[in-house]
Batch of 4 targets.
Target 1
Amino acid sequence: MKGKTAQIAAGWFQKSISTTHHRMVTLGLLVVAYCLPLWLADMAVKVLQGSSAVLSGIALGLGLFRFWQQRQELTTLEPSEGDRWLGYFLIGLSPWLLPLGFANPWISQVIWMQTLVGIALSSWGTTVFRRYPLPIFLIVIGLFPEPTLVAKTIWKTFTPPEMLERIMAWSGTVGLRAIGQPASQPNAVSIALPGGTVMVDWGCSGFNMATVMAVASLVVGVAMRESPTKIALITAIGVILALLANIPRIMLLAMSEAYWGKSVFEFLHGFWGGQIFSGTMFTIYYYVIMAIHNGKFSRRLAK
């Protein structure tokens, strides 16, 4: 048995160094193998902290699985000379950048992504990116470092200061008044009740949850093999639901601060309160997307 295993390993080794292309791809795979434990450790820490990083792992796995399903078709693709050398350049650059990833896991994710792009370019050319945009997008989502942070940067770049916080504070105030509470706004991002005042910071704006719902909707849509139109629909519904559901959450936090004491506020504002909120919202979201998947939503619109 040991002799057979050694023979198989020797055969793989000989194949990995048989041509320049095989040697470069092997170098790229070694870089990927080095980055994989760092990525898994970072994912584990984020999941234990209550992060939605598990969605990134699912997106990556689903994207790679879709590529595996197309493996026969991939063998027919041939890269141009320029694509192949560009891929070799990206692969060859990756080992030199690895020391930068020691202190920052997200840098190792960028290096990992760069290496995979190099392998794809040198093996199949730019055609693979045009022919399989969805699997590639899922892989990018899976490897992308801090998607919520990047989305936040883009949002804040192209919108007025505290735009979403202001909208949420105003909506929460209107909602409290609608149920008979004497709510007011001492400033644009605060809600005041007779017993206390809360400030709507960025973390309470609902943006992070909306980003998570967008990623989850893409993953669910692809996993359920929905059409691009339905994927876009459930993504939009997920984002809108996250933002709308955040309004009663802000109202509840304001009332807990004013009437029920700091301990209740900290519970609702902390980890377990967030899990209860997320679980309730995802339950509602589940029934909505199943209605869309089964065609009930479309039939109702047709009527």
Target 2
Amino acid sequence: MQALVLTSIQLRDMLTEAAKQGAALAVQELRADLLQAPEDVTLQTLRRYLADPASLSNPREPAGFNRRQVASPNPRHGS
């Protein structure tokens, strides 16, 4: 069994570098999202909806409305 011993400064530096790399990746992904054409965003949204209709909320439904609960009532509650 091998062990790696780090000083608190080394650990802090490693964590700082990992955080910088993670932030850089997040910014890169956000920039890519911003550069997408609106049609592509709409297409992705429609594909996500087709895969799982409950993944998108319907603005016409009241807040807290759960389509799955209405569509499939819980038999234990006598519905």
Target 3
Amino acid sequence: MNFKKLLMIGSFGAALHGCSSMGNFSADPMAGYASAQELILKKNLNQPDGAAKEYVYAWGARHQGADPESLLPRKYLSQYCHAKGGSFSLLHKSSLGLVKDGRARNALASSSNVSQGIGAYQCKQRNGQRWIVSIEPIAEMRSAQYADARAVRLQAQIMDADEAQRFYRNSSPAAVAPKKANAAAAKSPAAKPAALKGAEDKKELPAAAETAKPPVQLADTPQQQQMKYYVAARRDINSGRNQVEACNNAQRAYNYGRLPGSAASNVYAESGMLAARCLTGIPSYSSRFSNPKAQAQRILQNLAGNHNHAGAKHMLKQMK
């Protein structure tokens, strides 16, 4: 009888240990992140300084059949949302407006390995919290690590609802096309008398040819777009208004990298300085990051070490 009791107690203890082990095994590691922003930082979805990171979206023959890297940002953020008991859905479709090269934009748009992982996504968590993350392509290029693969530079960024709406309303490279079409329609000579219409046919032809230009030709160059973001950021930061949006514009300008041309090089460096100021001196923006000081230091170290920027060196000394 005593032996049976001991056997039952032992079996019960083993069962409890098994349940405990299963509970530990099934715990979702994604639930351990305090926020989506912390996940972005600790999973290194962007570069250490917050700039866009390269992901392979089309493997070559050597790695045929391998999973694309370009869907990883969406995958991790979706898993985090679901681990918090939330629902993850597409809020705004990406127009790839930050990709200024037409051929590169078409190549990315035609790849499901890119189109299925970009845009603005919304998570509605079980506890009532709601957050939005933007995953946007910046450029397309040959992979730096794999010679026979193609890569896309993606940036993941947490946005509020108004910011996401403004960004995706204004980011389309063809945003001016409807206005052009309406203007052309208003100038149509259909209502002119027949006698005058025949005499003016030759005069109207150049205007018709002009309106037939594809809207992509009117898109800003990367240098122009970078300059616009920088100018808007500097204006608003110096005036003390729209601080969060201004800091986002500074980060966007910095994310373009050092583009060809001396003016673009200066814009890149000064955008980085503005971004560092935001991370160290504007609480409404820096509070979004788990370690804003370290992120600012990475930006400044890049500018000081790789670009010999005197302002960055001075700011680093002040931060010590």
Target 4
Amino acid sequence: MGVNFNAMFTHSYNFNEIKAIPDTINNNGQMVYLNNIVYENSHSKWELPEAYSELDFNIGGFVTVIGPNFLELTFGQYLCSLHHVIRWSTFISNKEAQMWLRNICYELSSVLGNPMYIPDNYDDCLTFVLEEGNHQDVNRFLQKNFGSPNKTIESLNEKNEDLGFNGYQGYYIDTFADLKKE
């Protein structure tokens, strides 16, 4: 089993605000990376499946907004996880894939703030999303296991096979200094 891309964001939205996010993304002409490429067998628009209700969110603790291009946003009470099927190693080493995902995260940052990029095999981080964890919980876990954030995305490729995370180590907080438009 491989390790996929994951980005963590913080949020303070209630269920009704989360329910509005697909429309916000779908109707925002500025969010071209979130909307413009649709692969076969993929959703064509962002949507919150009708099966989800406010009760699911309040009792179950999370809902997932499904987007085009096999993108998913899972909203917990305080955290949001963006997941994609692109492998973590591809995100780190392939500039085209990296820029596509970074541009998606850049567009999402207008409603969710800056992301932390972490491989999806850091199971504790997903647990924080699903079980009402917050940004401080994620930071404590990451600091304890990896220390300070990596300074570059490329440095995330340095493996340590002694670690229990498929050898991957570290995380990166993107401020998008190189993408911000004047």
